[in-house]
Amino acid sequence: MNSQRKLATLTGVLYLVTFVTSIPAFAMKEPFLEGTGSMEMLNGAVVLEIILALACIGTAVAFYPIGRRYSEGLALGFVTST
């Protein structure tokens, strides 16, 4: 596998991680915000949010070399929006 394909695969995996972590994190925080959740659930949500933030940054950084080939401005915009 060439380096561009590996980078594209990494970008895709990190992008999927953002979805896999964001939805459960939201579901775990909602009961706490309503006053019925436990601190353990909130701690789990915080861990998922940290993983989510790292995956978002990783997605943007991994995507930049690929997106730069098509439009450097749009690729840089994606990185800075993260």
As a whole number of angstroms, the C-alpha radius of gyration is 16 Å
Q: State the major sheet.
A: none
End-to-end gap: 28 Å
Beta-strand content estimate:
under 5%
Average pLDDT number: 89
The helix content is: over 70%
Low-pLDDT residue spans: none
Number of helices: 3
Textual characterization of the structure:
- Helices cover 88% and strands 0% of the residues.
- It is an all-alpha fold.
- The chain is elongated.
- The model has no long low-confidence stretch (mean pLDDT 89).
Write the SSE topology:
Layout: H1 3-34, H2 39-68, H3 72-81
Keyphrases for this structure?
82 residues, mainly alpha
In short:
With 82 residues, the protein is mainly α.
